[in-house]
């Protein structure tokens, strides 16, 4: 029994910058291939986060560190560089999932306490059956394509849920979201 469908797949190659929509993505233990692989660094080496520099969200990465640094520098009005990240930042999850329904509720002004209604920067957007809510999935495992994710927690300040990769593989737009173990109630 399906707990939904994958309707969008995105990676954010440069942390804080705009995402890149994909039809499919390889998913390894650290998350989607190419996701948050680089960061924007100030001249003193300090890494900028999106909340510190909201202008980053408007920059679409090209994949070229030099071109991306030039675009971010222009957006910020000061020189920066793009540097590769090694490992995940503290507190970051491998995969961020959000439902289309949560996005619609947020657009209508219904936002969980402590969450922002702005772009959640999720890797996977899911369409769920009526009455389902991804926030109830913490502690559950889901299969999306050949990937198995374990939903581990709710984000502190944004919509959706965070998950770790239990089984690497590939996920694509149109893949069903299926509970793993324990039948349909595993994802509810």
Walkthrough of the structure:
- The protein has a 7-stranded mixed barrel with strand order 1-8-7-11-10-9-13. The chain has a 3-stranded antiparallel beta sheet with strand order 4-3-12, with no helix packed on it.
- The chain has helices at 65-76, 100-107; strands spanning 4-11, 20-22, 24-28, 31-32, 38-41, 81-84, 95-99, 124-127, 141-144, 147-153, 161-167, 169-172, 176-179.
- Residues 183-188 have low confidence and may be disordered.
- The longest helix has 12 residues, at 65-76.
- The protein is mainly beta and 188 residues long.
Structural class: mainly beta
Unreliable sequence segments: 183-188
End-to-end distance = 12 Å
Morphology call: globular
Task: Provide key terms for this protein.
globular; 32% strand; seven-stranded mixed β-barrel; mainly beta; 188 residues; three-stranded antiparallel β-sheet; disordered C terminus; 11% helix
Q: Can you lay out the helices and strands and say which pair or pack?
A:
Layout: E1 4-11, E2 20-22, E3 24-28, E4 31-32, E5 38-41, H1 65-76, E6 81-84, E7 95-99, H2 100-107, E8 124-127, E9 141-144, E10 147-153, E11 161-167, E12 169-172, E13 176-179
Parallel strand pairs: 7-8
Antiparallel strand pairs: 1-2, 1-8, 1-13, 3-4, 3-12, 5-6, 7-11, 9-10, 9-13, 10-11
């Amino acid at each position: 029994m399906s707990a939904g469908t994958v309707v969008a797949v995105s990676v954010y190659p440069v942390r804080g910058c705009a995402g890149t929509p994909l039809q499919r993505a390889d998913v390894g233990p650290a998350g989607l291939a190419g996701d948050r692989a680089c960061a924007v660094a100030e001249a003193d080496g300090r890494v900028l986060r999106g909340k510190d520099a909201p202008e980053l969200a408007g920059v679409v990465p090209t994949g070229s560190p030099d071109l991306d640094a030039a675009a971010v520098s222009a957006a910020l009005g000061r020189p920066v560089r793009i540097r590769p990240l090694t490992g995940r930042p503290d507190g970051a999850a491998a995969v961020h999932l959000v439902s289309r329904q949560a996005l619609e509720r947020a657009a209508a002004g219904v936002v969980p306490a402590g969450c922002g209604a702005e772009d959640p920067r999720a890797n996977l957007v899911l369409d769920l059956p009526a009455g389902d809510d991804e926030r109830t999935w913490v502690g559950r495992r889901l299969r999306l394509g050949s990937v198995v994710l374990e939903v581990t927690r709710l984000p502190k300040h944004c919509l959706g849920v965070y998950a770790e990769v239990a089984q690497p593989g590939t996920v694509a737009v149109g893949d069903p979201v299926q509970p793993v173990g324990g039948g349909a109630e595993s994802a509810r």
